[in-house]
């Protein structure tokens, strides 16, 4: 059975004893920086292993409590499964206690304990009041109903009981999924002498091990894993839910920074615009207007973003919204990722929520946009797949995995379910949404029907024009793949570089058939000396605007053969000319211009383009002042 993996985080006001508690539990002083030890406060998140009485080893993260270090606090709690909210019994609930709990609640934490620390220094008469304040604070949050444990990191009171409670509660927490593609937000990077660059963080999803090629985003730097560790112990693989250290090759320490994410290549990408579901804290004393500047904290990243509202003019305290964020810098985000929003100045936590769409498109400012974002968010993976296919029309499995951030097994199962209910259709190596294909097919039928009625003599619409109208965002390969599918389904036909409905056959309009027959019959009689095309049109009273379409139709139907733009010869006359030229060459060995004049009795106006057309079609070839026969089969056609 796979070992359990949990990360515990501490939270609470500065000086309430979080770091001392971590040291008592683990034996590790997580204040590793000189400044932290000098000032006796935590500046960066600290990490240590904790072995419980049952033998289960978990990770514990001690986060800073100072109000100016909220960024470090948020980066530290990313990926924790269980929180210890620490309150000093001699001080009670303080401002950062409230803000930390709000942040933890907004980040979607579901499990934790309330700890009254420094119980040895508590006033027995005030203790019931502090407990009541703590219960009131927890009301309406994920810690409502959580037990309050009395502890002292100095005397050791309650520490054994705390460990026993953790042993009881942790095994019931749902494990993080390892099946999704690998992702580790970087919270630290440093150099180890003799090893090189090392990054640390909590594995959000997937697994990796030595020899794996990964990617650093933003930046796109490819790196290779040399070694993987969990709490300074070398392991063959790190998995979701573990505090991990990756020794990387191919990158210098100066190229890595907190806020980057180490990912499986080709699956994850960076976002500059995300759709969100968010809720603001109810006790705010301000609202946010359209395009307000906010600070987005997601993963270990902190970037400025512009808030785009669709169904309201301002975001008021306690309201839930479906909106978008336009980011000043790229971040790595996945559907459902939790985030915190803060006001840049004066600093204050606004609220938080979840990512509805990490690769959002620009939307119109209208309530319908908010409804679309909500539908994407609540609809689950199937809705997201269908939406992506509707936008892109045709996507490979790899592309769908990149857009969804899901593991292979999960995505395969969802695609199979959608195929069974005829919502998607496999097309070559990719997938398309049936509803989207049906809509495009109906649009094509309507438009092509109108086009064929307007241009009945043309073989269809030029392929480039058709693709630009119906498949504007697809490459040549994808366009040809869909075209082949529509040909197999007898919806479209491709004739050379023209696209037409399968049921369409080019033909002369009834109103022009008599006049065209008159022109064709005349050319048949004139043989090798045809009248110029414009003259024929004028005499048959055919408008010039129809003349080009008629000309093209007659040539494609092999009724006429174009000698020049002005001269067209009837096919029968041309075939006789080819036969006569071939016969002469077989008898004489070649055909000179003088011999051609004698054979055909034509002036250069007709003879030269006739002989050059035979050259162009590969029947004859000019060698000096003579022509020889190239292909007997063409000459006999």
Automatic annotation (TrEMBL):
Cited CDD domains: SelB, SelB_II, selB_III
Biological role stated in the UniProt entry: Translation factor necessary for the incorporation of selenocysteine into proteins. It probably replaces EF-Tu for the insertion of selenocysteine directed by the UGA codon. SelB binds GTP and GDP.
Domain named Tr-type G: residues: 3-176
The keyword Protein biosynthesis is annotated on this UniProt entry: yes
MF (Gene Ontology): translation elongation factor activity
Protein's organism: Kroppenstedtia guangzhouensis
Keywords per UniProt: Cytoplasm, Elongation factor, GTP-binding, Nucleotide-binding, Protein biosynthesis
Name used for this protein in its record: Selenocysteine-specific elongation factor
Predominant cellular place of this UniProt entry's protein: cytoplasm
PANTHER family, per database record: ELONGATION FACTOR TU, MITOCHONDRIAL, ELONGATION FACTOR TU-RELATED
């Amino acid at each position: 059975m796979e070992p359990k993996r949990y990360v515990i985080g501490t939270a609470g006001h500065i000086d309430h004893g979080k770091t001392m508690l971590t040291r008592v539990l683990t034996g590790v002083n997580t204040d590793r920086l000189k400044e932290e030890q000098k000032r006796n406060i935590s500046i960066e998140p600290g990490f240590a292993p904790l072995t419980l009485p049952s033998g289960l080893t978990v990770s514990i993260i001690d986060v800073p409590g100072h109000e100016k270090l909220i960024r470090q606090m948020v980066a530290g709690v990313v990926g924790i499964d269980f929180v210890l909210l620490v309150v000093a019994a001699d001080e009670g609930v303080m401002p950062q206690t409230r803000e930390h709990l709000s942040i933890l609640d907004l980040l979607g934490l579901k499990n934790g304990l309330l700890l009254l620390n420094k119980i040895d220094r508590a006033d027995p008469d005030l203790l019931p009041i502090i407990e009541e304040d703590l219960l009131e604070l927890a009301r309406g949050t994920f810690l409502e109903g959580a037990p309050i444990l009395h502890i002292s990191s100095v005397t050791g009171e309650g520490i054994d009981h705390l460990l026993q409670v953790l042993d009881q509660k942790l095994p019931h927490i749902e494990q993080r999924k390892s099946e999704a593609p690998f992702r580790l937000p970087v919270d630290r990077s440093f150099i180890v002498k003799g090893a090189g660059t090392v990054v640390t963080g909590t594995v959000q999803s997937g697994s990796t091990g030595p020899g794996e090629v990964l990617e650093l985003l933003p930046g796109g730097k490819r790196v290779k894993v040399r070694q993987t560790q969990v709490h300074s112990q070398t392991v063959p693989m790190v998995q979701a839910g573990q505090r991990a250290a990756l020794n990387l090759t191919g990158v210098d320490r100066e190229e890595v920074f907190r806020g980057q994410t180490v990912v499986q290549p080709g699956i994850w990408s960076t976002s500059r615009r995300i759709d969100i579901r968010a809720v603001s804290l109810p006790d705010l004393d301000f609202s946010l207007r359209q395009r307000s500047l906010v600070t987005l904290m997601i993963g270990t990243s902190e970037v400025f973003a512009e808030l785009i509202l669709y169904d309201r003019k301002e975001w008021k305290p306690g309201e839930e919204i479906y909106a978008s964020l336009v980011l000043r810098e790229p971040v790595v985000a996945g559907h459902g990722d939790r985030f915190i929003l803060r006001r840049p100045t004066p600093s204050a936590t606004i609220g938080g929520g979840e990512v509805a769409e990490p690769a959002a498109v620009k939307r119109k400012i209208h309530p319908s946009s908010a409804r679309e974002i909500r539908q994407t968010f609540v609809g689950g993976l199937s809705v997201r797949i269908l939406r992506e296919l509707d936008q892109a029309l045709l996507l490979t499995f790899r592309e769908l995995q990149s857009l969804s951030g899901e593991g292979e097994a999960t995505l395969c199962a969802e695609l199979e379910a959608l195929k069974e209910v005829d919502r998607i259709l496999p097309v070559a190596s990719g997938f398309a949404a049936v509803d989207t294909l049906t809509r495009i097919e109906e649009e094509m039928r309507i438009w092509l029907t109108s086009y064929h009625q307007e241009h009945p003599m043309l073989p269809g619409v030029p392929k480039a024009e058709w693709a630009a109208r119906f498949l504007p965002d697809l490459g040549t390969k994808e366009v040809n793949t869909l075209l082949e599918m529509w040909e197999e389904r007898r919806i479209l036909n491709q004739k050379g570089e023209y696209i037409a409905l399968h049921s369409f056959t080019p033909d002369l309009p009834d109103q022009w058939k008599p006049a065209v027959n008159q022109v064709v019959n005349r050319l048949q009689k004139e043989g090798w000396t045809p009248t110029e095309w414009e003259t024929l049109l004028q005499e048959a009273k055919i408008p010039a605007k129809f003349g080009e379409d008629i000309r093209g139709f007659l040539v494609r139907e092999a009724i006429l053969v174009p000698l020049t733009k002005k001269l067209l010869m009837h096919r029968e006359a041309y075939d006789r000319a080819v036969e006569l030229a071939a016969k002469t060459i077989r008898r004489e060995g070649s055909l000179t211009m003088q011999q051609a004049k004698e054979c055909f009795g034509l002036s250069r106006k007709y003879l030269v383009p006739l002989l050059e057309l035979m050259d162009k079609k590969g029947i004859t070839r000019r060698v000096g002042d003579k022509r020889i026969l190239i292909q007997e089969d063409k000459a006999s056609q």
